[in-house]
Each structure stands twice: as C-alpha cells, then as structure tokens.
C-alpha cells in the first residue's frame, strides 16, 4: 500500500493526474516539444559510452547533470556490439542498458542515435567491416545485402531499447534514424523509408523519430523525409538565424533543434590540435537558447579511441587515439574553463542543480618504467598468428582474411636479383594504410597510403620480403567508407608484379593479454624491425586513493601501440603529432600485482645507446608540434 501511495504522490508532485501515461511529442502549433503535456526544451550534451570506461560513466554523467543539462545524446556503434557477424556483446564497457539506466537514475533524458551509420569519427562510421565481404556492397542504401544485415541488427537492438523509451518509463525522448544522410552520395529515399518503417515496427508509433543534417538546403534535400522530424547541426561560427531558416524549409513548424552544436573539433595525425575558445562557444550557445531552440552540445565529453576504434577522413587522414575534442569536459573528464562558461549561459535559461560538480579526478605520475625487448613480429609469428598461414597468388585484404583490425604480415620471395636499389611500388596506391617493409630480416622502409607509394630495396632472387600492414582506422565519413584494409592491390618490384604470397593474420591483442611473447637479444639497426617491448611497475597498496588516472609518454619512441595489463590503450605517434601522451584510466591499473606495459614499436625503439623507457605523467600533451606529410 505504501508503494502505491508514494507512487501517487510522485505523480501529483510531477503535476500529472493519476493514471496519466507519460508522453513526449512534437507540437507543430506551438513550435515546441511537449513532455507530459507541458512545453519542453532540452539542453543536451553528447557523450559516447564506447569512448569512456564503464567505471567512469557515472562520474561523467553527474558532471553533465551539474552543468545544467537535462539530456544527453549518445551514439550506438554497431561494430562495437557485433564485431563479427551474429556475435553480440553488451557486457562490461559495452553494457548499453546499464548506461541508459544510469542516465535515467541521475535524472538525464536521452537522445539516442542508433544508426545504423553514425559517423562520429569512429571506425567505418560504426558499420561493421564484415559487411565488406560482398565487395561491391553499396553501404547506406537499398542494397539487399546491406538491408538484410541492418534488419537483423536492428531486430536485435531496437527491442532491447524499447523499454527505455520515455513513454515506457525510461529516459529516451527521441531516436535518430541514420545520420547526416544528406551528406552521402546515395540519396536513396527508399532506404530512409525502409528504416522509418523498421524503427516504427520495433519502437511503435509514439516515439519521436528524427534526422540530423547540415544546416543547408543541399544537405536537407537528401537527408530529410516525411515521417522523420528534420533537425540541423552547426557550430559556433555559423549564423544562427540562417541555420534555423534552413531547418524551417524542411520543417515550417515544430521546435528548432541544433542536434550537433560543436564545442570543439576533431583532430588528425599531422595536424594541430583543434581549439575553439570558450567565449565564442558561450556567445553562440546564448544566441541559440535566446530563440527558444533545443540544442545538443557535440561533444560535451569526447573521451578516447581505445584500441583500434578511431576513424579517418578522406583523402585518407586517420584520427588519433585521443578524442578530447576541446570539449567542456576533457578526455579524462576534467572540468575546464569551457565547462564553467557553458554552465553560466545555461543558468540564464533554466534552474541548474545546486551544489558543486564532482571534482576533476586526480592524476598521478608513476615511476619511469624500463622496457626490455621481446621478440620481433616475424620471430613471434607462430604465437601471433592463431589461424596460421594463408597462401594466395595475389594478396588478400583484411576482410578476405576474416580480420577486422590491427595487423597482417604479407610474405613473398623476391623474384629477381636487385643488386642495385630497385623500386618496390604500390602503383594503384593499394597499401591500406601503412606498411613496414623488410628484406631477409632487415628493415628497409615504410610505404604509406597516399604519401609514400614507392621505396627502393636491394636483395637477391629468393630473398624473403616481409610487409607488415597496419590498419590505421577506416574512413568514417563521405563516399569512401567502404574502406578495405591490407594490400588491396598488387605490388611491383621493378617491372615485376609480385605474387605467391603467404599471409598471417595477427591476433596481437590476444597474444599480449595471454603473455605469449618472449625476451630475445636485440640487434642494432638504424631502422628496426617491428618488435615488442615489455616492462612493469608497482603501485604501492599502502597509499590511499591509488591507483589514479595517469598518462603514458614514450620519449623518443616513433610509432606503435601500447597495452597496459592487456588493455589496448591505443596508438602512439609522437613523431607525427599532435598527440604525445595517452590517457590511462585508473580502472585498468592494479595495486595487487605489478602492472605490465607492452609496446609494439613499428619503426625504431630508442634503445641503441641506453635502455628503453616509458614515463607516466600527470599532465596530458595533446597539442605538440606536428610533422605534416601533406
């Protein structure tokens, strides 16, 4: 009885008559949203649960709530939950339902963006690489193979999120269908109609479905369609009036909505770190709120592209591990000047929660760690290639080898004597994305997509030619998202086309986490073979509040990948910049056992004159000088 009474009191406190169902809708007459019958405006912020360890979801969401936001927006990356076809993962850092429930418990509504395509500077825009098994598949279109895969995925996902819709007692007020479709070449209205019908069949007729496109008529022409509420996105340098006039062409009535108001911008390797001033963001946000518009700040916290999840722009320019975005909350969830500037603006338009935000998490500079050299990639082939060698006349792509991420070693024999330097070339620019070349166990150079398509090599006929190809992240935006990896076309040596390849798919993450790699004697060379290095450090368990977050720094190392306690922290490339340090969240560290650091250095480790070392620092470096290759 007491539960019934408290529920009744709650409804009365909310101003709802007893038995009134919850509702969220578009009011075309009053140009607003209505929540439970009352006029409603959201001030939201983007947070991607896939870029933040689960251990920190609550901290980040609370900070967003305390900034005055009443909603959050998040993407669901399909490839994060279905890495291989038919195998789903929704646990641990992928526990979407826990994330939605947490937002609900904190008092934040949710704007959900389930794709199937999301962009988001995420590998292949969230689409799984296994879709490319059909080579000529037209992604984001009515292509029957693509549609069949989408229908199956949404048949798994959408019933899972239906209980979390607002009218069902959950936090989700609106659901986006696809993403910025007006920026894609296909302009396939039947595809959008199919998705609309699909989403309605799983989620019902009450939920508000919407689209997002650039604030220009050219974008809205192919991106908006009847039955989906059209919204726009634009940044602080845009003319607010003109941007919303574009939305009004598609939606003459209804709420004004900026679904992506850019608080910063993305980074690329080899370009300076993006910085947008707090004053400019605050001024533009004020203009948006002054015209009664709804707004989502993209990003409110960017987070980290752990592992291999970063995307890339076209022409090919991959994004770094950090997705800091110069957002109001830093990559590590720190409160910034921008956070407080935005909170001051929001304060002018709605009452914000009383009390302080959760503080910035403390950072700790652990000791310098000495690194011992383990095996080279070629020495460790049997341990790294769980599936064993695959032979083919011509090279196979990652997808053909049933591999999504990481590295594949391609091996063949030189067909002719090359006593003088002879060009090894990728005439069709088929190295996707970076290849580390060696002849008879001696490193000879690097081929790089778009930038270095020829190097000179020497060797005898029959010499072993090894080409370790790194997938640097798939293009996530535009017409080139069908981004095949590996050697996607033949290589030539002088006038000869190379053939008779042996290929090894490398399960590097599994080998590292299982501790399969051994120590060996190093050899000195100006350009060294891709090799593994390992060290460890102890965090004393007698010190309160440890472990704490930290950043790893690799002074004089060139390019590679880092694992800590088997967790793939991400890519480092300080020689290209702008990112130098990698964020290491406290939840992957241990006070109960030594913490293992494993590095795969692809180019050259700084061990010739002194022992290799890595450092931990309490301060991130995301804006170092860059070495551009363009």
Description:
This protein has 630 residues and is an alpha+beta fold. It is built from twelve helices and 33 strands. The strands form seven sheets. An eight-stranded parallel beta barrel has the order 4-5-6-7-8-9-10-11, surrounded by five helices. Helix 9 packs parallel to helix 10 (337-347). Mean pLDDT is 95; it is low at 1-12.
Topology:
Layout: H1 2-13, E1 24-27, E2 32-35, E3 38-40, E4 43-46, H2 57-66, E5 71-75, H3 78-81, H4 96-106, E6 109-113, H5 144-161, E7 172-176, H6 189-203, E8 208-214, H7 217-223, E9 229-233, H8 240-250, E10 257-262, H9 278-290, E11 294-298, E12 312-313, E13 317-318, H10 337-347, E14 369-376, H11 381-384, E15 390-392, E16 407-413, E17 418-425, E18 431-432, E19 434-439, E20 442-448, E21 454-459, E22 464-470, E23 486-487, E24 492-493, E25 496-497, E26 501-505, H12 508-513, E27 531-537, E28 550-553, E29 560-564, E30 567-572, E31 581-584, E32 595-601, E33 612-617
Helix pairs in contact: 2-4, 5-6, 9-10
Key attributes of the depicted protein:
single chain, 630 residues, alpha+beta, eight-stranded antiparallel β-sheet, 12 helices, 33 strands, 26% strand
Q: β content, as a range?
A: 25-35%
Overall pLDDT score: 95
Main sheet properties:
8 strands, parallel, barrel
Structural class: alpha+beta
First-to-last CA distance: 71 Å
- What topology, given as strand order, has the largest sheet? 4-5-6-7-8-9-10-11
Q: Quick one: overall form? A: globular
Give the number of DSSP strands: 33
Summarize the structure.
19% of the residues lie in helices and 26% in strands. The chain is of the alpha+beta class. The relative contact order is 0.12.
């Amino acid at each position: 009885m007491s539960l019934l009474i408290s529920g009744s009191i709650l409804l009365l406190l909310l101003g709802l008559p007893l038995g009134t169902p919850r509702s969220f809708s578009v009011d075309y007459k009053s140009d607003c949203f209505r929540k439970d019958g009352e006029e409603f405006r959201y001030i939201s912020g983007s947070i991607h649960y896939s870029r933040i360890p689960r251990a920190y979801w609550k901290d980040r969401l609370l900070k967003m709530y305390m900034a005055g936001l009443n909603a959050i927006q998040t993407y669901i990356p399909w490839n994060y939950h279905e890495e291989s076809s038919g195998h789903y993962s929704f646990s641990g850092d992928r526990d979407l339902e826990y994330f939605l429930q947490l937002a609900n418990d904190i008092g934040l509504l949710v704007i959900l963006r389930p794709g199937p395509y999301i962009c988001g500077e995420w590998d292949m825009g969230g689409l799984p690489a296994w879709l490319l098994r059909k080579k000529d598949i037209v992604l984001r279109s009515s292509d029957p193979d693509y549609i069949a895969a989408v229908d199956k995925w949404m048949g798994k996902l959408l019933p899972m999120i239906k209980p979390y819709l607002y009218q069902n007692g959950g936090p989700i007020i609106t659901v986006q269908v696809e993403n910025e479709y007006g920026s894609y070449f296909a302009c396939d209205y039947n595809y959008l109609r199919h998705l609309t019908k699909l989403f309605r069949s799983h989620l019902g007729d009450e939920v508000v479905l919407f689209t997002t496109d650039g604030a220009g008529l050219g974008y809205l022409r192919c991106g908006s369609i009847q039955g989906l509420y059209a919204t726009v996105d634009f940044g602080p340098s845009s003319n607010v009036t003109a941007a919303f006039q574009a939305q009004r062409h598609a939606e003459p009535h209804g709420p004004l909505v900026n679904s992506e108001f850019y608080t910063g911008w993305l980074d690329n390797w080899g370009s300076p770190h993006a910085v947008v001033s707090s004053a400019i963001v605050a001024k533009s946000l004020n203009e948006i709120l002054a015209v009664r518009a709804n707004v989502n700040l993209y990003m409110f916290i960017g987070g980290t592209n752990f592992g291999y999840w970063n995307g890339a722009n076209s022409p090919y320019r991959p994004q770094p591990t950090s997705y800091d975005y110069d957002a109001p909350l830093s990559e590590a969830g720190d409160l910034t000047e921008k956070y407080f500037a935005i909170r001051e603006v929001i304060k002018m338009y709605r009452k914000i929660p009383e009390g302080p935000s959760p503080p910035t998490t403390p950072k700790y500079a652990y000791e310098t760690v000495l690194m011992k050299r383990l095996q080279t990639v070629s020495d460790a082939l049997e341990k790294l290639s769980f599936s064993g060698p695959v032979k083919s006349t011509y090279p196979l792509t990652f997808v053909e080898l049933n591999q999504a991420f990481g590295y594949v070693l391609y091996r063949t024999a030189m067909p002719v004597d090359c006593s003088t330097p002879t060009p090894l070339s990728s005439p069709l620019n088929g190295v996707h994305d970076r290849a580390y070349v060696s002849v008879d166990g001696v490193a000879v150079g690097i081929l790089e997509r778009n930038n270095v398509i020829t190097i000179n090599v020497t060797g005898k006929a029959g010499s072993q030619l090894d080409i370790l190809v790194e997938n640097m992240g798939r293009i996530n935006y535009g017409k080139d998202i069908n981004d095949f990896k590996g050697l996607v076309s033949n290589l030539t040596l002088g006038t000869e086309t190379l053939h008779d390849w042996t290929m090894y798919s490398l399960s590097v993450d599994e080998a590292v986490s299982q501790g399969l790699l051994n120590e060996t004697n190093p050899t000195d060379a100006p350009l060294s073979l891709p090799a593994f290095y390992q060290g460890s450090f102890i965090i004393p368990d007698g010190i309160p509040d440890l472990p704490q977050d930290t950043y790893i720094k690799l002074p004089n190392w060139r390019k590679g990948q880092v694992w800590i306690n088997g967790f793939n922290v991400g890519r480092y490339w300080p020689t290209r910049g702008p990112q130098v340090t990698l964020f290491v969240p406290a939840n992957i560290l241990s006070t109960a056992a030594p913490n293992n650091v494993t590095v795969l250095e692809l180019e050259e480790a700084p061990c010739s004159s002194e022992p290799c070392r890595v450092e931990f620092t309490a301060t991130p470096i995301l804006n170092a000088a860059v070495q551009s290759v363009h």
